[in-house]
Design goal:
6-stranded parallel β-sheet, about 15% strand, 2 domains, Rossmann fold, alpha/beta, about 350 residues, EC 2.4.99.24, lipopolysaccharide heptosyltransferase II, 12 helices
């Protein structure tokens, strides 16, 4: 069986969708008559395509040419018609928009499934009722339900970065393995971003305990100013060992660097999910979002969450104006786990 998966637009969601793909790949009901696993292709935007290239169960990644947020009906029809020749048996449409369902429809894939919404029920078969935003299951179960899988059927997402890719990323940025990776940004908004002074204090404590190692700040160009403010607040005696690489790496390079890190200090972010899937130790700070819905899927992950009465609010900025969910989450709470007593090197 040949399967097309229409990928989400967020890195974290893309990583969490790998559990569905892994389950499909293991599913004997979808295997060929000769016992070969189903062949999985992914149609992904450029931002999430690298995630699927790191999945051992994905046969091919087709990078979509669409502009974010635009219908581009003629172009979607053209892409669908081109994919028709691939002879896909099924399509799993992970985003919830109408436009994301159009390509499988134009590709004449008979079995097209996804959640209801935006009138797309008219072109989905079968269609699943979309749960209320107040009753959202964890994302693994949300995606797994598209093929009737329960939590028991789903494994944690797994990504693989080839050793050569990691070694090249280290050479590209003149780094040695074993550094502390830090992902201080949050695409969704500042209500998911631990304050710069807290991050800086935690980085300072880690560097003090590891005098021969570096801390590397990763993210996009939009995170650069915030990362630089963290760098300036790190203790001066350790500041020379802080590297700010926000906006300087490709996603593939960032994945290679994270795979070479001893741990990742992060907010609830896409890179948090990447590190968990790469089996890197994750220290994840949660504020406006919930670790129940989007946790780092790694048995070796540590989550820091105050669970205040106003949390989770899922807002981009604090609706109460105080951001206590993050301001009151003090660096010592994280540092005590990041550098347990007696474990400094």
């Amino acid at each position: 069986m040949r399967i097309l998966v229409v990928a989400p637009n967020w890195i974290g969601d893309a990583v969490m969708s790998l559990s569905l793909l892994q389950a499909l790949h293991r599913d004997d009901r979808l295997a060929s008559a000769g016992g070969e696993p189903c062949e999985i292709h992914v149609l992904a935007p450029p931002v999430t395509a690298p995630v699927y290239r790191c999945s051992p169960v994905v046969k091919a990644v087709h990078v979509e040419p669409f502009k974010h947020g635009e219908l581009q009906l003629t172009l979607r029809r053209k892409v669908g018609q081109a994919l028709r020749a691939e002879g896909f048996n099924r399509a799993y449409i992970l985003p919830n928009s109408l436009k994301s369902a159009l390509v499988p429809w134009f590709a004449d894939i008979a079995w097209r499934t996804g959640y209801s919404g935006e009138l797309r029920s008219l072109i989905l078969t079968p269609v699943l009722p979309k749960p209320s935003k107040y009753a959202k299951p964890p994302m693994l179960e949300w995606y797994g339900a598209l093929n009737g899988y329960t939590a028991a059927d789903l494994e944690y997402p797994r990504m693989q970065v080839e050793g050569d890719a990691s070694a090249k990323a280290l050479r590209d940025f003149d780094l040695n393995a074993g550094f502390l990776a830090v992902a201080p940004g949050a695409e969704y908004g500042p209500a998911k971003r631990w304050p710069a002074e807290h991050v800086a204090a935690t980085v300072s404590g880690w560097l003090a305990a590891h005098p021969a190692r570096a801390a590397v700040l990763l993210g996009g160009p939009q995170d650069l100013e915030f990362a630089q403010s963290i760098e300036q607040q790190v203790d001066p005696e350790h500041r020379q060992r802080v590297r700010v690489l926000c906006g300087q790496t490709s996603l593939e390079q960032a994945f290679g660097l994270i795979a070479s890190a001893t741990a990742l200090l992060t907010n609830d972010s896409g890179l948090m999910h990447v590190a968990a899937a790469l089996d890197v130790k994750v220290h994840a700070v949660f504020g406006s979002s919930s670790p129940h819905h989007t946790p780092p899927l790694n048995t070796n992950a540590s989550v820091y969450y105050l669970a205040l009465s106003c949390s989770p609010c899922y807002q981009r900025t604090c609706p109460l104006g105080h951001l206590d969910c993050l301001n009151q989450l003090k660096p010592k709470l994280v540092l005590d786990q990041l550098v347990p007593p007696g474990q400094g090197v």
